[in-house]
Amino acid sequence: MGSPAGTTGAQLSRGRWIFAFSLVTSLFFTWGFAYGLLDVLNAHFQEVFGISKLQSTLLQLAYFGAYFVFAPFASIFMDRYGYKKGIHIGLGLYSLGAIFFWPSAKFQKYGGFVGCTFVIGCGLSTLEVAANSYIAVLGTPKYAAARLNFSQGFQGVASFAGPMIASRWFFQGKNATSLDTVQWVYLAVAGLGVVLNIMFYFCDLPEITGDALAEEMHEVGLTNDDQPFLKQYRCIFGWVAQTAYVGAQVAVASFAVNYMVDQNIGISKSHASQLFSYCQITFTVGRFIGVGLLNLIDPALLLSFYGIACTAFALGVAFSPGVAGIGCLFTLFFFESICYPVIFTIATKNLGKHTKRGSGLIVMGVGGGAWYPPAQGSIADRNTRLSYVVPFTGYAAMTVYAVGIVIDQAIKGGFRFRTVDEIEQRKQQLAALSPREKVSEDDFDKKDSRDVYVENVDVA
User: Fold this and answer.
1) What residue ranges do the domains of the chain occupy?
2) How far apart are CA 398 and CA 237, in angstroms?
3) pLDDT, tens only, 131-164
4) CB of 40 within 8 A of CB of 185?
5) Cα 223–Cα 227–Cα 228 angle in degrees, nearest 5
6) Among 423, 403, 431, CA closest to 352
7) How confident is the model at residue 331 (pLDDT cuts 50, 70, 90)?
8) Bigger pLDDT: 242 or 227?
9) How many angstroms separate the CA atoms of 281 and 161, rounded?
10) pLDDT range class, residue 452, cuts 50, 70, 90
11) d(CA 195, CA 290)
12) Topology of the domain comprising 14-420
């Protein structure tokens, strides 16, 4: 069976565009809620099962390791069968993993929680390949980063709802040493997944294919996807940057509750969980502010600035005691806000026929969240504050990637401060060419002539 016939975001009516955008955006809330609960369960299980901080990071290893293992398969599946069927598979795995939290809590098996978390991670990695890629290509590339930041803002809304629920129900009274509430919360999570799956079954979700995107690019002389996938270096290095960044982000969040308690300024676990939800609110506000900035400023340039800020405040968290360290932690959450979606859109930009495969690779980078928490946990068992030197390394790698993209853009077409729609820019350049400079349609279809055409456009 071949790839499903498709369209591009630019070919959709306004009504179909709004419907598709809204429905896919609902998926971001789904995994934001699961992710927000994960970080709090990390601290809760230390109490219930009497395990160390390092042992508790098995949850992160299972959740984010699932991305590393399953995202490539998800991208191959969707390239062959389309986004909608991929979303069904993702929501099915998500609900299945959540349902099995019930017997794990009933029989108090930490290994059961780790296994269920892996299944949930497989489902969410599939949803991320679908939703991130779909939103990124659902319209002009100029605003891809802004669109994805807006959609992922709802992930942020859900991610602070999780810790707020935990602060009220997980750490109060008898729930502080039991798993009764966890059972009901994850049963509700499973129900949410089932409801969304039913909604997607009955919706008419327009399919956007790599072939359609490639045709749109080729019409204006952008032929990046002529090269094999392994030579799509912006995407390959984007995977490295995403792996490093997500690892850093997850490590920061995994030990945020422990960090605030260990500052020895009278903060309890319940209060720390509430403060952590405020950190997530800061992250979410930063993401929506980022939407406005990304409508004006070049995404790679803005990512470079935010990356530098992340590296600076990660060191501030590691070396600042008391309230100052907590202040640096809140600021770090703010500057993390745009990083994931901007790396994703930069790395998958103009991939054409390689779009879904590239999306799978970048989502695979989420697997970085499996490696950083154990590395940080081994230090946190001795000194939680100094363990924040570990995520600093991830932010530094991301910043190198962002600055490299800025330099590459400057070399090829001049320094960019404002965001640019490359396809529209190419159309304008083509319209400005004299008849003598234009290439005939027959020649345009040939690779060598296409290269000449691109050179003429660049000169113009």
Assistant:
1) 14-420, 423-459
2) 10
3) 888 887 777 777 888 888 888 888 777 776 666 6
4) no
5) 140
6) 423
7) very high
8) 242
9) 9
10) very low
11) 31
12) Growth Hormone; Chain: A; (1.20.1250)
